[in-house]
Amino acid sequence: MKTSSLTRASAEIRRIARDPLLFVIIVITMLSLLVFVIYPLVSVGLQSLKTDKGLGFSIYGDVLKSAYLRKAFFNSLYMSVLTATAGTLIGFLFAFAVTRADVPWKKLFNAIAIIPIVSPPFIGALAIIMLFGNNGLITWNLLKINNFPIYGFNGLFLAQVITFFPVAFLTLKGVLESMNPVLEDAALDLGGSRFKVFTKVTLPLAIPGIAGAILILFVETLADFGNPLILAGSKFPILSVQAYLQIVGMYDLPKGAAISMLLLIPSVTAFFVQRKIVGRRKYTTVTGKPQSSSGKIVSPGARIFLFLFCLFITIIVGLIYFSILIGAFAKVWGFDHHLTLDHFKFVFGVGFKAVRDTLMIAGISTPIAGLFGMLIAFLVVRVKFPGKKLIETTSILSFAVPGTVIGIGYILAFNHKPLALTGTLAILLLNFVFRYIPVGIESGTAILAQIDPSIEEAAIDLGADARKTFSRITLPMIVPAFFSGLVFAFVRAMTAVSAAIFLVSSRWNLMTVHIMSQVESGNLGAAAAYSVLLVGIVGLAIAFIRMVLKAQYGKLGGTMLHF
Fold first, then answer.
1. pLDDT 10s per residue in the chain (563 long)?
2. Which of 338, 355, 379 finishes a domain?
3. Among 292, 315, 338, which residue terminates a domain?
4. Number of Cβ atoms within 10 Å of the Cβ of 332
């Protein structure tokens, strides 16, 4: 068996060698993933073992002995479990209402669920301070409550759920849409009650999606940095913030690295468990075109409840983003709400360099990440070569790693020769490219798996090389996945903070880091103005990317673009 495996591998190498361009692409891809994904993680691991006497585990001992850091670790797990559970429940009810209950205002509910995804992840925390903080619009201005306990568990839990429930909603909406509602209608026609059909048919089919959503939200919450930095406070420490404070505040790289490694273990474990669940179970129950739901599974009373529930969540999300919008124009939030443009003058004056830098970094990294993601998807699905599994696993690994760990890893790995990149544009670009290619890879892999490879084989038989086949045949057919990869890469490059906060410098800064600094200094108006501008830029960029790709590829293969 071992001999046959070696023979097969050597045959694959000989076949690839006949296409020099493909061989070079595979080698460069593998090396780049090893250098910019694996090497930083190894650097964090090695740094966490450094002691005065050489390598050892004494730093981990110090971390585990600290009651405060142990509390931070358990707080992180506790918050992640609670957010994953509550966020998935809200996401499922939202998705069920939209796909099965035929509630009114479905388009509004869909739009509201998308907004938190295309905005900085800590906008919820900023809005919660503006609404419920010491000078909050609700607590102080309306209710005259002073020192409302919004910092700590209460505020952080609310911010995390609002920030991450849309991820569960989008995941479960796709799962429910892929389930043929005829099965539910047939069960009802056979005499099953609505509750029994829901528990025996709908819910079991949705369980893999629910499990996947819970694990995704667990990973996202565990890795989140912005909301805890703003809202957690000293009474409810969170591990990602403690890693940051050890490095930035106490200049203790080994201890910060050790804390990061503790954060890495549950995050990566949950990510790969989620992939295992999704990979093993299929959601689709359709053998042809899916039929629309009759809505019979939902009683009139349940439909009213789901509508009111979605309306309640919509009002909360709307209130959060409305407060950000008003805060951007209010003279002094909490004291003087007369409208002014002073905060935007500050953004376009003193802070415009951060706006320009962010647009440049996102604009350069987005097409690179999009094309690189499609290229890796093509290699994984269409090409057989030794090391394919390594490329596939390594390329998605960065998505499972908390941004704090990535940021620390890049500082450690690229702070010295031969790749001394600290403080440069290159380190920010590389971080965004390799951190956000997995969505493009996953989308591209899913679509390529459904496309008959004989189309590409025919092009090769007619004399096209790998480059022409990919650019002229494959890429036009996977435009929806390419679009998803581009949008995700741009949105994350514009809104990322956890890794980027370690990598910015006086030469290159980001809007998100400026927003964080304005919040910390109490200048909520400027932070809100930055946030409004950021959400506006992201919305325009999504529309622009869609327009360009539709103009370029819209007529090729009848591809439909959607987001």
1. 455 555 655 655 666 656 677 788 888 999 999 999 999 999 999 998 887 777 888 889 888 899 999 999 999 999 999 999 999 999 999 988 888 787 888 888 888 887 887 777 778 888 888 888 777 778 877 777 777 778 888 889 999 999 889 888 887 887 777 676 666 667 766 666 667 777 777 777 778 778 878 888 888 888 888 889 888 877 889 998 898 888 887 888 889 899 988 888 888 888 788 777 666 554 444 444 445 555 566 778 888 898 999 999 999 888 888 888 888 998 887 777 788 999 999 889 888 898 899 999 988 998 888 888 888 888 888 777 788 888 888 888 877 788 888 989 999 999 888 888 988 999 999 999 998 888 777 767 766 766 666 766 676 666 666 667 767 777 676 776 677 677 778 888 888 888 888 888 888 888 888 888 888 888 888 889 998 998 888 888 878 877 776 776 554 343 333 33
2. 338
3. 338
4. 13
The reply to whether 7 falls in a domain is no
- DSSP per position, 370-395: HHHHHHHHHHHHH---TTHHHHHHHH
Task: Say how far apart CA 105 and CA 318 lie, in whole Å.
Answer: 14
Domain identity same for 329 and 369 = no
CA–CA distance, 297 with 532 (Å, rounded to integer): 41
**Dist. CA 563–CA 561, nearest whole Å:** 7
Name the CA radius of gyration of the chain, rounded: 25
Total tally of structural domains belonging to the chain: 2
**320 and 371: one domain?**
no
Q: Do 374 and 308 fall within a single domain?
A: no
Place of tokens 């908390």: 402
Q: Are 186 and 290 found together in one domain?
A: yes
DSSP, res 292: P
